[in-house]
Amino acid sequence: MKAQPTTLRAVLFAAASLLVSALGAWLLFGRGASPLQTDLLAMLPATERNALAEDAVERLSRASGDRMILLVANKDDDAAKDAARDLGAALGKDKVFAHVLAELPPFDMEQLVNPFLPYRFHLLTRDDRDALSAPGFNAVDTLKRRLNEPFGATVGPKLGDDPFGWLQHWLDRQPWNRSTLVPEDDLLTAHRDDTSYVLVVATLDGSSYDDGVQRRALAALDAAEHEVTAKHPGTQLMRTGAIFYAASARAGAERDTHVVGITSTIGIAILLLFVFRSLRPLGIAFLSTALGVVGATVATILVFGQLHLLTLVFGAALLGEAVDYSIQYLCARANAGPTWEPLRGVRQVRPALLLALATSLLGYALLALVPFPALRQMAVFAIAGMAVACASVFWLLPALLRKPAHAPLATPFVRVALAWQRVASGRRAFLVIGVLVLAAIPGWLKLGHDDDIHLLISPPASLEAQTNQIRDIAGYGGGSQFWLVEGDTPEAVLQHEEALADRLEAEGIAWTGVSGMLPSQKRQAANAAAVAHVFCGGALARDGSCGTADRAQARSHMVAAGFKEATADQYIASFPGKPFTLDDWKRVPAYMPFQYLWMDKGSIVVPQGDVDVARMRAMAEGLPGVSVIDKPASISTLFGEYRGFASVWLGAAMLLVAAAFAWRYGRKGALRVLLPPLAGIVFSVAALGYLGQPLTLFHLMALMLVLGVGANYAVFLREGEPHSAHTPGAAYAGVLLSAVTALLSFGLLALSTMPALQHFGLTLLLGIGFTALLAPVSAPSPAGPQA
C-alpha cells in the first residue's frame, strides 16, 4: 500500500517530463530556425545613454548585413581577377547565397550622374563654395580650365551639364569615389604593395546567425576556396562579415560544450561506478540530471525565446551541481543498507536538499537581477535546472529505488573521507583556518581588477587581422567607435553634422557621413547663393530666379570660354534647379548602402583610418548634438560598475544565507555551517591574487555560486551526520562525492576558450575545492560531542 502514492507521483512526474521533453525537441528542432543565439552583441547589455545611441551601435554592427565580404589577393593581376571570377561563379551555384557579386553588371555612367542634375547648383564642395564667395572670381578663366582638363574614365557628368566642374568635384567626394577599389575589367580592384585585391560580395539567403545558414554557407566557401587556390596558385582569400564572427563564437562554444560536457560526464560516471559499484545508481543520477537540463533548456527558451552560447556552455557545467541532489539520495540508500525504505529516505534527505536548493537558488537569483542578457539567461537556466533535478529526487527516484543497495559506499573512499574529516574538524581546524586567513592577506593585497570587454568577446586574432586589412583596403567592415549626431529635426541633425565635418576636414581626418551626401537645406541655400554670383550678379530673387540681363552675361562668359551657344543656353536655363531633400537622397540607388547612417533624429559619422578615441572626443568637444560612442569602453565601464555592485550583492547574500541557517541551526550552529563557504571565498580570492588574476565581474559572479554551492556541502554534512553515525565518514564521503562531481564540471570551465568562462571556472574550482575540504568544520568531530 505504501508504494501506491510513490508510484502515482512517479507516473505523473514521468508523464510531465515526457511532455516537457517533447516541447523541448519542438523548440529546438521543430520550428525551422534554431533558437541558438550566436550573435555576440546580443549577449551584451544596453550601455549607451539613450535608445538612439543603442540603435546607432546596432546599425553600425549590422553595416555589412548578412553578407560575406571577400578579398581575393594575388601578386599576379590577371590571376587575382580570374580567381575572383571563379570564386564568384562557384559561390553563385549554391542556393544558400541569394546573390553573389564578383563581375559588375553592364553599367551606364549616366545612371549614376543623371539623378543629381536637377540639384547640381545646390551641391558644392567646400572649396568651390569658398572660391565662388571670394572676391575676384573669374568665370571665364574657370570655364577655360575646365575645357582643357583631361577626361578619363572617372564617373562624372557631361561637360555641357557641368561646365564649371562643380558637380564633378562634388561627385568625387562621394563614398564610392573615395574607395581604393576601382572598376577594372568589370571587377572592383585595388592595388597595393605589388598585390592586386579583387572584391567579391556574397549575400546570404537568410540570417548570419542562423546555425543552418552558417554551416551551409561556410561549407560552400571552403569548397570554393579550395578549388580556386588549387587552380590559381599564390591566391589568398581574406574575409569579414558577421557570419564569420558568429561561426567562430559557435565553434568555440561547441568545443567548450564537448570538453566540459563529455569530460565531466565520463569523469562523473567513473567516480559513481567506483563509489556505488553498480550501474543502476549511475543511470539514476544521470536521469535526474538530464531531466534538470531538459527543464532548464525549455524554461530558458520559453522565457527568452533563444539560448545564448554562454548559457549553453554553462549548462554543460551545470551537470556537476544538478547531480548533487540524486547523489545525496543514493548515499542515503547505500548507508541504510537492508533497512532501506524509499519514502523514509526522502524524509531523511528532504530538509538538507530543500535548504541546499534555497541557498543555490539565492545565488542564481542574484545573477538574474543583473541587467545583462547572458547572465540572466544563465540564472534562469540554473534555477529551472536545479528545481527540476531536486523535484525528481522527491517524486521520481523513490519509485526507481525501491530495493536496498547491493553494497555500501566504497570502503576506500569512506576511509579517505573519515581520515580527512578527523583532520579538518575540532579546534585544530579553527586554528588552521586562522593561520590561512593571515596567509591570505598578501594575496588580497596583490589583487587588481580588469573590466575589459574582451573578457566576454574575444574573436580569433586572424579574423580580426583580416577584418582590419579589408577595412583598410576596401573600406568595408564596421567599427565600434564613431560620432553620434543628434537633433530635434532632420535639418538640425544635418547642420550639427556639418559643423563636425568642417572641423574634421580642417584637421585632415577622413570620414563618412550623411552630410557628405546630403547637405543641409541651409548649406544648400548657401551653395545656391554662391552660384548666384555667376548667374545673377550676386543674389537670387525671392522666387529663385534672376534677370534676363544677368543670364545673358553668364551666357557670354560661357561662349567666350569656348562653349557652344546652344550648350550655354541649355545649361543657364536649368538654373537654379531645386534643393536636394532627404526623400530624394533615399531614392538614389547609389546611396542605398549608406542609409544605415541615418536615423531621422540622429546620424552616424564613421572615421576612416586610424583615429584614436581621444582625438575623436577632441573633434566633438563644444559641438551641439555631437558625441563620441565607444562601445568597448561603455561595456568596460558597465562591467566595472557591476563589479562594484557585485560585492554588495555578495554581502547581502551572505546575510540572507546566515539568516536561513540561524533559523534552522541556531546562532552557534549557523556560524559553524556558514564558516566553510565563507572561508572558501576568502581563500579563493587570495589565491587569485597570488596567481596574478585581476578581479573581474565574472570572478565575483562565481563567488556567489561558491557561497550557494559551498553552503550545500556544509548543510549535507550537518544534516547527514546523524543518519550515518553507524558508518563514520559516510556523510562526508557523500559531500566529497558531490564536490568532486562539481569540480569535474564547473572546474573544466577554466579550459574554456572564452576568458569570462575561464575566470568563472577557475574561481569555482578554487572555491568549491576549499569549501569541500573545510566542510567538516560544520559538523562535530566524529570523536567529540556536537558543538
From TrEMBL:
One of its GO terms (cellular component) is plasma membrane. It comes from the Bacteria. Keywords: Cell membrane, Lipoprotein, Membrane, Transmembrane, Transmembrane helix. PANTHER family: MEMBRANE PROTEIN MJ1562-RELATED, MEMBRANE PROTEIN YDFJ. Residues 193-402 form the Membrane transport protein MMPL domain. It comes from Luteibacter yeojuensis. This is Lipoprotein. It is a multi-pass membrane protein. InterPro entries: MMPL_dom, Mycobact_MmpL. The keyword Ribonucleoprotein does not apply. It is found in: Cell membrane. The chain crosses the membrane at residues 258-276, 283-304, 310-331, 352-372, 378-397, 429-445, 644-663, 670-691, 697-717, 729-751, 757-777.
